[in-house]
Write a structure and sequence with these properties.
about 20% helix, 5-stranded antiparallel beta sheet, signal, LGFP, elongated, PGRP, Amidase/PGRP_sf, LGFP repeat-containing protein
């Protein structure tokens, strides 16, 4: 890799090393995971609308090609044959700058002999242009045996998402589509200025340049405000800017990543070029790099596994995920089993403290994840580099510079001189990263849910031998359990996990967790689903499990959003006939194998309670509550019904009285709704019940019959069932055009608008 100096200070041109990824078979896919929702307002930045526009110009030896620029652009030259020694110059403010040579990669790229290396085109490293209105190219080597020279220009407008993920975005408004991207005239370029603009580490109480503390920065931000954190994170490292967030066009990736069994070392690089870029220009530069490498050079993807800018921001590089040892294309011959990290810029002098701090975190995270001492050495076998022949064994520091394995100045003297302290500081931080290994599906899930923030550090190794071959691992604030049927899911310290524990974890009725804990329910409640049911929690009710038919019925009523609200008790069994019930904020659900599960609430439930619940005269409910006229309702039970209306309240009907009421049309008939309960203890063992339009009387000798209107009033005057007429023996009927009703001691006729009592 070539170092660049003077021209870049004037022109803000950033050169990147050649980034090549090997063509290989796709790695085994991870188990399918149900990803959690992001907590609070920290959401993944949407950079899906970022666009990169490609312009390709053909050139001949001895020809000068000029290209107009109006946005952040990444430019490069490709060819077939000999290196034409391309040169470039830029126009800034109407004045052309001096000619400079385009850098050609040395030492980066895929392993020699790989499929990707065979299909790649020769070319220069990409240059990022941020402040020029025009650029010219020419070939210095006019005698070169070169054909198909192409100038590749990839331009991208700064997006609002670029500004949002930049730590200096509070001073840099989002551009309109018509505005060219120009650097701020007072953008800091010296290390002391960078230090003033650095955000403190999480947990620090020192102020940053925005007058905010780190605790303030960690709080949720308004949707239109710039966030100093992105939503992506990985175990032990914390948050970084993901490919999706910086706007990677994944359709450009040309092959699946290959993986090694482990990462054994970290390779440190610099991209070379100017250090005068702004934070919000970095995502666009990365998009341009990706497009040049894939569309221009024919490579698979970015070569570095990770990149760091001078402000200490960390960016995802090569795709494939951080839970596997993805083989990059950052140090040809030494890509396998190494993690390539590049600091953006040229570092003939020391990088900023912010960038060094980020490298220390990455080294601590990688060494802890893969279980090695970053201050130790390792023996690697060369796959063929510009310094070591293929097959040669080389003893290297676990954290080494690109120049240690290739003939290059990379990562620059200033950064290379810091490698010793980076190793030492990385080791100091290693113990706070991962005290125990978190491998396999549990580890993949731990990283997917940002486990260091959600669960804390692991407090044990993984344990197997659970039911159905399951495994688990404990963390500071919870566990992750894995089973073949449901995958890996966490249970967080708190009331939901405490209840699951009381149910004997995976060995109890709930079984294994099958989702994460989800918040945001009504009244700030939360829930988690398990193999055998759910656990819901709210501050008012605590945590309670629901399962089986009772849970199904609760769900049919809208769960916590329905009339029942949250559960307020566990499920109680041991009721009559093997029944069970569970209480909720708004009522109960009772179940038996014969009747199923049905909810009761409000006035109907109160009336049922008066009768003795399932042990009373009505037995268990056999239906849900049904709505009737005049805002009424009814519910059926094993031995009767309960009807309710606002005018009458709730009253049970059963037996012969209920059947007679049904014959009259229930609440839609002449009697209307019941307005009293059934009263017993009448003359000769009789009973009656009052309705809106009359009564129904019953006795063992006469059965149940309704009375209403004038006949009922006349009967009452005779003394009801204790009088000479006794109990009714029929309902009203017509005889010879006259309404009549029979009683034990005679009958009453209604004619000429009067009641006439006839005794036998």
């Amino acid at each position: 890799m070539v170092s660049w100096t003077s021209a870049f200070t004037m022109t803000s041109l950033v050169a990147a090393s050649v980034l090549i990824a090997p063509m290989a078979q796709a790695a085994d896919p991870l188990p399918k995971l149900e990803l959690p929702s992001y907590s609070g307002n920290v959401q993944p930045v949407d950079n899906s609308d970022a666009e990169v526009h490609r312009l390709t110009e053909s050139a001949e030896l001895g020809e000068t090609v000029s290209v107009d620029l109006d946005a952040t652009s990444v430019v490069g030259v490709t060819w077939d044959g000999d290196d034409p020694k391309s040169e470039y110059r830029v126009k800034i403010g109407g004045e052309w700058q001096a000619w400079e040579q385009m850098p050609v990669e040395d030492g980066a790229g895929p392993e020699p002999g790989s499929t990707e290396a065979e299909q790649a085109k020769d070319g220069t490293e990409p240059l990022a242009v941020t402040d020029a209105e025009q650029i010219e190219f020419r070939a210095e080597n006019a005698k070169a045996d070169t054909t198909d020279i192409r100038i590749e220009v990839f331009s991208t407008e700064k997006t609002s998402a670029d500004v949002e993920i930049a730590r200096d975005s509070g001073t840099e408004p989002a551009p309109t589509p018509s505005e060219p991207i120009l650097p701020s005239p007072d953008a800091p370029t010296e290390d002391n200025e960078l230090e003033e603009r650095r955000a403190p580490e999480l947990g620090s109480t020192s102020n940053n340049s925005y007058g905010e503390t780190a605790d303030t920065l960690a709080q949720p931000v308004a949707p239109d405000a710039a966030s100093v954190y992105t939503a992506a994170s990985t175990t032990g490292l914390g948050r970084y800017t993901s490919r999706a967030e910086w706007g990677a066009n994944e359709s450009k990736v040309r092959c699946s990543p290959s993986t090694a069994s482990e990462n054994r070392a970290v390779t440190i690089h610099h991209t070379a070029g100017s250090n005068s870029y702004s934070e919000s220009e970095v995502p666009g530069i990365l998009r341009g790099y990706l497009e040049y490498h894939t569309s221009g050079r024919g490579w698979c993807d970015l070569g570095y596994n990770m990149l760091v800018d001078k402000f200490g921001n960390i960016y995802e590089g090569r795709a494939g995920g951080f839970d596997k040892a993805v083989v990059g294309a950052h140090a040809g011959g030494f890509n396998t089993g190494t993690f390539g990290v590049s600091v953006m810029g040229t570092y003939s002098s020391s990088p900023s403290t912010a960038a060094l701090d980020a490298l220390e975190k990455i080294i601590a995270w990688q060494s802890a994840t893969w279980g090695y001492d970053p201050t130790a050495k390792v023996t690697l076998t060369s796959g063929g580099s510009t310094r070591y022949a293929s097959g040669q064994k080389v003893s290297l520091h676990r954290v080494f510079g690109h120049r240690d394995v290739s003939t290059t100045e990379c990562p620059g003297n200033g950064l290379y001189d810091k490698l010793s302290s980076l190793r030492s500081e990385g080791k100091k931080q290693q113990d706070s990263v991962l005290p125990f290994d978190v491998p396999g599906p549990i580890g993949a899930h731990y990283r997917a849910i940002d486990g260091t923030n959600v669960l804390g550090m692991p407090t044990s190794s993984q344990h197997g031998g659970l039911r159905n071959g399951g495994r688990y691992q404990s963390f500071e604030r919870g566990d992750i359990h894995w089973s073949e049927s449901f995958g890996a899911h966490s249970t967080q310290a708190g009331p939901i996990r405490n209840l699951w524990k009381a149910q004997k974890f995976e060995n109890g009725r709930l079984g294994y967790p099958k989702t994460e804990q989800h918040g945001g329910l009504r009244n700030d409640g939360s829930y988690q689903s398990f193999e055998g049911g759910d656990v819901h929690w709210s501050d008012a009710t605590g945590a309670h499990a629901t399962w089986g038919d009772i849970r199904v019925t609760w769900g049919a009523h809208g769960y916590e959003n329905g009339k029942l609200g949250y559960p307020t008790s566990r499920e109680h069994d041991g009721l009559r006939n093997g029944g069970a019930y569970q209480s909720f904020q708004g009522g109960d659900i009772h179940w038996t194998s014969a009747t199923g599960a049905h909810a009761t609430w409000g006035g109907i439930r109160t009336e049922w309670a008066r009768t003795g619940f399932e042990n009373g005269s009505l037995g268990y409910p056999t239906s849900r509550e049904h709505q009737l006229r005049d805002r009424g309702a009814y519910q059926s039970f094993e031995e009767g019904d309960i009807h309710y209306s606002p005018a009458t309240g709730a009253n049970a009907t059963r037996g012969a009285i209920r059947e007679t009421w049904g014959d009259t049309g229930y609440e839609n008939g002449k009697l209307g709704y019941p307005k009293t309960r059934e009263h017993t203890g009448l003359h000769k063992g009789g009973a009656y019940q009052g309705f809106q339009g009359g009564d129904i009387h019953w006795s063992p000798d006469t059965g149940a019959h309704a009375t209403w209107g004038g006949i009922r009033s006349a009967w009452g005057k005779t003394g009801w069932e204790k009088g000479k007429l006794g109990y009714p023996t029929s309902n009203e009927y017509k005889k010879n055009g006259v309404t009549r009703q029979d009683f034990q001691g005679g009958y009453i006729e209604w004619r000429d608008s009067k009641a006439h009592v006839v005794y036998r």
